[in-house]
Amino acid sequence: MSSNPLKAPFQYKKVSLDDVTTDNQRKAKDVSGTIKRIWSYLAREKRKLTLVIFMVMASSGLALLGPFMVGMAIDDYIVTQESAGLGMLLVGLIFVYLFHSLSIFLQNFWMVGVAQNTVYSLRADLFQQFHRLPISYFDKRQHGELMSRLTNDIDNVNNTLNQSVIQIFSSVLTLVGTIIVMLYLSPILTAVTMSIIPAMLYAIRWITKRTGPLYKLQQKDIGDVNGYVEEVVSGQHVVKTFSQEEQVIEAFEERNNKLKNTGFWAQTIAGFIPKVMNMLNFLSFGLIALVGGILAINTTLVTIGVIVIFTEYARQFTRPLNELSNQFNVLLSAIAGAERVFNVIDETQEETDENAAKTLSSTNGHVTFDNVSFAYEETPILKNISFEARPDETIAFVGHTGAGKTTIINLISRFYNYDSGKIALDGIDLKDIKRSSLRQHMAFVLQDSFLFHTTIRENIRYGRLDATDEDVIHAAKNANAHEFINKLLDGYDTVLDQEGSGISQGQKQLLTIARALLAEPKILVLDEATSNIDTITELKIQEALKRLMLGRTSFVIAHRLNTIQEADTIVMMEHGEIIEKGNHEELISQRGRYYQLYKGQLLEKAN
């Protein structure tokens, strides 16, 4: 393990382009699968898509008609010096380009709607999936990296749908239409124009083979940077407390440089495409002018107008190829982002409730553990745990970090499912109770008090959304929070951010207690609810907690043993096993591990 905890989770393995290319080839089958899934979202907008396709066909046809009419004007009116019909042809040419512009506007207008609706559905599915995933999924991943999938990756898909889909379809139609008209006008000049295709295809293949893996790696690096930034910004107090600014900046520079290098090579290699295409385009113009001029002078196979049409069509012929190659890279980048989104959507969701799972309208709060064992990713965490929490009793768990205290709470709330044994609520196996129903009868007051970016009133009301303002105020009074709330400039309408800036840690904890009181749970979980609180505020919190625990089955995790001496049962844990169990007086009289821990804390307090 790294000696630097700030950098340990983020050690990078050096990746060569060959390694990435190999990985990309190995996952090539996912590209078609991802495209199909994106199409399944697009297909929901069939009506607008049909209009878009019709407009693309119209704009492509009009784009071909314009140069053809210019060639006709040269051969039929300018060369022959007959101006009778030239005016009408020019008026028709004006209308052609006007309708061409209108069709482009309409296709873009409708495609924006298709793209926005598609991305709306994709974003909604991903956000809903976040709420279906088990807690264990979030425990193993950076929140910033997951945020990157909801923002950067989906925005990447959105930009591609807005810009690339139309261009790809239009380019294909223009390419096919151009070849057909060119063959009709002059097979010889068509062959000359198409002689550069092998060189184009080779250049495109060489470039895209390298940019595809780089775009995929770039999306990954963006997620890494976002994840690290989110973590560091959230932990600024820790960073500054330990004076680790330089270490954090160095770690960020490592990730930032990695993203810079990946982006540099992806964009640089992709930038070769238009340069190569322009060079080949100029070569094509020269060949058409040379061969066309010879044919026009020595034969009647080609006219001046045809040469003019071909020079324009040569541009229209290479432009779609150029656009296709450019958009292919953009498409690969979007597919890489979409794959990351679909990877989350495809993650195993929290286990569904059994078909016969019950909904609890009420509960007495009688919880029993019978020989319960649990392992996390094949690592044993709890071993043969048995205890009973009768209605209205308080059960306290003590022990060193990693003893399994929090895991027990996660099993009671069914954030995890136990492997063997049985946990019952009022005699009903927890696995036979719907998760949502179980959690409706529970409330949590945790060490890290989380507050939403909204008013104090709405933060408290989160415990029961149908609560009235009077209910909110009543809960705040019982939680000893009403007094400090009224001293704030906007009172209950004071807007807090997620960190609760503007109020103290103790005041934030009082708000979470008020939220729990408003929920009126039958089962209460307190996880280090009074840690890191000043003495005066702790007394207020202890008084509020007593009101909160009254008439409820309470599970308390505490390191400071003076806060749990009144618990009905104290469970001493070590390495996932219960080593002692009883009330405070019983455990003290046993003079075992609990007694040693209690005595040690008394000595620390005395010193």
What does this structure look like?
This protein is an alpha/beta fold and 607 residues long. The protein folds into 2 domains: 31-345, Up-down Bundle (ABC transporter transmembrane region fold); 367-606, P-loop containing nucleotide triphosphate hydrolases (Rossmann fold), CATH 3.40.50. The protein has 20 helices and 10 strands. The strands form 2 sheets. A 6-stranded mixed sheet has the order 6-7-8-3-9-10. Strand 1 (367-376) and strand 2 form a beta hairpin. Helix 1 (17-26) packs across helix 8. It starts with 16 loop residues before the first helix and ends with a helix. The model is unreliable at 1-29 (pLDDT under 50).
Task: Kindly report the average pLDDT value.
Answer: 79
Ends apart, CA distance between termini: 35 Å
* Tally of domains: 2
Major β-sheet strand ordering: 6-7-8-3-9-10
Total helices: the number is: 20
Looking at CATH, which topology of the largest domain would you report? ABC transporter transmembrane region fold
Morphology: elongated
CATH level-4 homologous superfamily of the largest domain: ABC transporter type 1, transmembrane domain
Structural class: alpha/beta
Extract low-pLDDT stretches.
1-29
What is the H/E order? HHHHHHHHHHHEEEHEEHEHHHHEHEEEHH
Q: What is the top-level CATH class of the largest domain?
A: Mainly Alpha
CATH architecture of the largest domain: Up-down Bundle
The share of residues in extended strands comes to 5-15%
Largest sheet at a glance?
6 strands, mixed
What is the helix content?
55-70%
Number of strands: 10
Rg value:
35 Å
